Every structure is written in structure tokens, then in C-alpha cells.
Fold:
Amino acid sequence: MKRNKQIDIRHALALAGTFNFLCSCARACLLPFLTLYFRQLGLTPAMTGIVMGTKHLISVVWSPVASALSKHYNKRRVVINGSLVCSAAVALVLLLIPPTDVNTQTSACNVSDLSSGPTPNVGGNLLMSSIGPSILSPTTQPKANTALVSQSGVTLPAKTLPDTKSAPVVTSKMSLHQPDGDKSHPQLSQENTVNNSAGEPKISGSVIHRTTSSAAAPLRNKRSESKSGSGEQLGEKTTEGEKREGHFDFLGSLKVMDPLHQLFFLILITVSVWESSSAPLEWTADDGLYEYLDYADASDRYSSTRVWGLLGGACGVGGAGLLVSQLSCVIAGQTSRSAVHFYCYAGVAALALPAATYLPLYLNKKRDRANGLLKAMQLVRGSPRALLCAVTTLLVGVAGSAVDNFLLWQMQDLGSTELHMGLSLALALLSQAAFPLLAGRVSKLLSPGRVLAVGAASLGFQCFYYSFLWGPWAALPAQVLSCFSSGALWWAVKVQCEDVATPGAERSVRRIYSALSLHLGSALGSFVGGFVVQRFGLTWLFRGAAVGLLLWCVCLPLLQWKAPRQRRINYSRLLAADASEASDSESEQERDWLDKAMEEDRGNNNNGRRIKH
Structure:
């Protein structure tokens, strides 16, 4: 970039805001609903937590490395465009993975939607028409029928049960049995084991489970055939099934696994590739934009583009939820309507490509970000208050992962649709974006340390509230607290970064905190949260997160009071002295010598005047 080239700051900020808006909108169309899709495919809570935790770990490791490589080889724009295209393509690959044969779930679909959609099984239509929606409604069903015991480890929409284990068949307290002699009159009977075929509807509590992937139907038929033989023919059937599945099992180790673990490893590999392609996008674009504005002496306006990310996320999650809720459970033949989230993600990512092509970027080879991150870690480690802030953000990330991964599961169990979920999450993002309007008044009432404790406590109260949800819209009032739980907390983190950082290191210190909270803390919370849901249930996950945060918020003010308060850095003096201690001391000595010389000169002049008189 030439020095004489005129830079249009407003045009650059408009492009950057548009790019952030579209990227955040694309992520919000899919990521909040991703765990629901895993649940629909048949993953257990523990498996879902492992997948999401791995996704966060890849992001925290690969994002800085990929961004540094793109800067070293001056390929930032290529990395940004390639990340958009590859992430959208790999996300669509998840739609090609078939669900398991057991406990396949539809996402909060009504019986009328299922009956109106195209179904290949006539017996399923007869079952739905004879039972009627009154029996399948979660509000009219007796409690004895909603208490389901599942050995497959997959949580059912009627109720998420703890202590579940993997098994190839479903064992339920209430199941639907249809005699072979008379298929037109289904009867309800109490039994322990149901052998579900590929096209047969599976009714559990209040939701009908139906396999909706047409591409996976032949594969599931082969799986069911290989499992239906007697004990004498088990070896022969297994061999035939492995030969038939040879085209699908591209890894030899997956051949000996049951369908549930095959599904888990396929999703884990696909999500890992997806995150590897999408992780460099944010850091690379962020560094290029900041260096561009810093080159134009407008780095103070860099933070104005962040609010567009929150607004884009609110539009994405709310719009996707509204769109999917208006569709039938089965669309375009036998495609589940959950696939619309993936198509929206790919479509909005494609819209971001023109903005990425003209996104203002600048390469500052003198700025070494690797050393900046190491220096930022040293600054955080050397300040007790900064360490307390780091521990707080880590715990907030652990508790926030429980909300991000399993809040929609809790809402789905209570009958919420994608409309309720999308509007609830959109309200949380909008309230978070509104906190800067209150930051001036809050800063006059509370110190940044107390605001940090209030933000963590607000998230704790939110988690405690989520454990007592009672209806589809019940989560909506608690989302307003996101103004303080997320908005106030990150405002306090920003103030802490300004206190501890040296000039030019504010962004690096802020990235340390965001990595601790959004990725490392979320990874730990995902791993632990999945096993907690598997063992104790969703309710105790939210209560445990709430208790942990509230206990820390009680101890945090005392620890902050005991921590030594460091002297604030005089940034104006450092900037005037070129951020050097040696030059600062020399400038002070020069000023002292000049002041003394001027005073002596004044004294000599006054003495001369007195002598003349």
C-alpha cells in the first residue's frame, strides 16, 4: 500500500461491518441448533459433549497458527475466501451422515406435520390415524407413560433421563405393538423390547420417531437384516453385513463398531474438518482490518464493528428459527427440516464472499503477533487482579457451554419449537448489544471488579432459572439478563485489559481472555456437561453450573480486596516518550535541566535589573 493513497475510513468500516454481520448471521443460523441435530441423529449427551468440546479445542489451537501462517505468506484474502467456501461445503457433508436405526428423533414436530408429509410406510399412517393427536400430546399424556427408560443413551424429547447406556434396541415402559394378523387395529401394550424396522415409526412418549433420510434407507435395511438373525446364524449375518457396508465404512476400524459409535466417529471427524476450515476466518480478518485502521491512524474506531456481529447473530438465529418453524417436518421428499439450518449457513456464507473480496486488509510486517500473545500472557500472569479476571472468564466459559449445548434440549423437552428457541436466543444477543448504552451509568455505580462479579452472578441466576423451566416460552424472560451476564462481563474484561496492558497490547490481552472463556472454558464445560447430563440429567447440569458460579462470585470480591492494587500506567507519558523507559527517564532529565536553566536565566536577569537601578 502506497503512502500517497487516500484511505476512506467510512467505506472501510462499512465493509467491515457488513462482513461481520454476514459471518455472524451465517454462524447463528446453524451453530446454536447443531446439538439439536446431533440429538436427532441419535448421539448421546456424552457424545455430543465430546464433539462440541473437540470443536472448541481445535479452534483455540488452530486459529492463531493459521492466522500467523496467512500473515507470513501474505495470503490473508485467500485464507478468508477459502475458509468461507470450505466451511460451507464441509457443513453440508454432515447432511450425508445417516442417523442410527434406534432412537432417531424429529425436532419437536407435531403429529399433523408428520401425517401430512410423504411416508413410505402405510402402517405408520394407520397408527397415527388410529391413535390420534390426543394420546401423543405431552400435556394430556399420563405421567406413567412419559417416564421412559432408555438403554440406548439417547435422551428423548418427552424427558431427558440420566444413567443411560448404549444398546442396539429400545426398551421402554410404554411402547406401541401391532399384531401381524390385524394391522388395521393397532393396540397399546406394555412390553420391554421393540424391534424397529427401517420404515416403521417409533413412538416414545409424545414424539413419533421416523427415519427421514432417503439416502440412508438401504443402509439401515442392511443393518437391520444383519441383526435379525438367530444365535446360530449370527456369524454369517455379521459377515454379510460387513461386506454390504464396505462402501460406507471408509475406515477399517469402524467395521467392528455398532451403528451408534460409527455415527459418533463419523460426526467427530466431519466436525473436526469443519472447524479446521472455519477457525482461521475470524482471526485473519480481524488482524487485517485492525492493521489497516492502525495504518490510517483510526484504530480507535475498530471496536465499532463488533456491534454488527451481535446484530447479525440475532438476525441469523431468529430468522432461521422462524423459517424452520414454518416448514413441515419432512420436506423435499424425505429430507428433515433440520437440514434448512445447514442450507441457510451455506447461503449466507456465500453472500459474505463479495464483502470478503473487497474487505480492507493491510499487512504490517513489523507487528509480531506471536510475541504479542506471549507478552500478553506474561502481563496477565504478573497481575493478581488480571489472574482473578482470567479465572472468572474461564468459569463463565464452562457454565456458558452448558447453556449453549443443552439449553435447547431442555426447551425441546418442554415442547418448544424452533420459533421459541430462535426468538429466545435472538433476545439474548440484542440485550447483550444494548449494554454499551448502560455502561456509562453502571461505571459510576460499580467498579469494574464488581461489574465482573455481577456479570458472572447473572449467568449463574440464568442457569438456575433454566433448571425450572415449565413451558415453551418460559426461557424468554431470563434472556434479558444476558445484558449483564455477557454484556457487563465483557465490558469489565475490556477495562481490565486496558489496566494491565501496555500500549499496543490491548488486543492481545483481550484475546487471551476470549480464548480462555469462549474456547478453553467451553471445551472443558462441553466434556464435563455431556457426562453430567448422561449421569444426572439436564436439570442438575444447570443447577450445578449455577451453584459453581454463585460460589465463585461470593469469593471473588474478597479475593479482589486482598489482591494488591497496581499503579495505573500513564499512557500519555509513555506515548510521548515512545513507550521506552530509557527515553522517559532521559526526557525527564532534559526537562529538569531545561527548567533549572530557565530559572537561573530568570534569576540573572532580575539581578542585572537590580544592579542597574
